[in-house]
Amino acid sequence: MVxxxxxxxxxxxxxxxVYAKGKGIIIREPSVVAMDVRxxxxxxxxxxxxxxxxxxxxxxxxxxxKPLKNGVIADYEMTADMLREFIxxxxxxxxFNRARVMLSIPSGVTEVERRAVHDAARNAxxxxxxxxxxxxxxxxxxxxxxxxxxxxxxADLGAGTSEVAVVSLGDIVASNSVRVGGDDLxxxxxxxxxxxxxxxxxxxxxxxxxxxxxxxxxxxxxxxINIKGRxxxxxxxxxxxxxxxxxxxxxxDSVNQIADMICETLxxxxxxxxxxxxxxGITLSGGGALLRGFDKLLSHITKMPVKVCENPLDCxxxxxxxxxxxxVLGL
Length: 331
Ligand SMILES: Nc1ncnc2c1ncn2[C@@H]1O[C@H](COP(=O)(O)OP(=O)(O)OP(=O)(O)O)[C@@H](O)[C@H]1O
Ligand SMILES: [Mg+2]
What we know:
Layout: E1 4-11, E2 15-20, E3 24-30, E4 33-36, E5 43-47, H1 49-52, E6 62-65, E7 68-69, E8 72-73, H2 76-91, E9 98-105, H3 111-123, E10 128-133, H4 134-141, E11 152-157, E12 162-168, E13 171-178, H5 182-197, E14 199-200, H6 203-213, E15 224-231, E16 237-243, H7 244-268, H8 271-280, E17 282-285, H9 294-302, E18 306-308, H10 315-325
Parallel strand pairs: 1-9, 9-10, 11-17, 17-18
Antiparallel strand pairs: 1-2, 2-3, 4-5, 4-6, 7-8, 11-12, 12-13, 14-15, 15-16
Helix pairs in contact: 2-3, 4-10, 5-6, 5-7
This protein binds adenosine-5'-triphosphate and magnesium ion.
């Protein structure tokens, strides 16, 4: 008898989340692979959280990298290696030996990029692979009435890509995406600190600043924090204070690109569905939705209610999970 286990996987630029049918979320790890390049072919040393701690700290023989960029595969072999490790971990020691996998992919990708994800999962040992577009998975995960003749708008704001879609009667009616996400906000903070304070900081410090005091809209209790980096003038370590208003200024271009994407999609939405959205509002998912005041900014610009879904970081994988539990999409 062939035993099989079904998994839903949100293969993100920053995080990979795995849902096992009948169990729920079993893996939440950074999308990072560490390889020993002395071996030929290179050997995987670590994946996920363990590999992430190695970024920027590896000896010459080991590299720790993110195999995805802007939501799509940048390094095919590494992505397949990472998926293989996650699927192995998800299967554990169970008797299940035939993993069937539902993977989420960004909606704006090319056929070649789609195929790459499909093949990487097959290469990683999955016996059957189905793909679902991120905004559809996010809408299902957020509990929106996707199957009804009602327009629902969902925007998934990830690390490498942001996507928005209007869903009605089980299909995407209008959609849009930009290859701008949380990683770009971090880059913008690095560039700002370098320009304004002559200070060099790494991407982990930039992300830290964003999460601690970053915002898209002014908020109560605006703050300032001390950051450490390397002085670009004399090369020595230096401390600088940065305020939440400065961070808002630093990330405003990227934030506005995401807001423009949503506005353009609203303009393309058929009027009946637009009026549904006006009633029910826009739902945000993805880690970017956690940026302070993003909902307020979008509500201010669109004049519509905007709410963040319950588990922004898990919303997409929970959507694949719901499909698996209901045996939807032929798995
Ligand atoms: N509290 C927070 N405030 C602002 N940004 C946050 C917060 N928490 C997480 N993020 C950002 O969210 C992003 C990760 O979100 P998510 O896991 O949804 O992305 P992903 O699915 O890996 O990427 P993508 O969907 O683009 O492939 C990172 O850029 C992270 O810095
Ligand atoms: Mg994502």
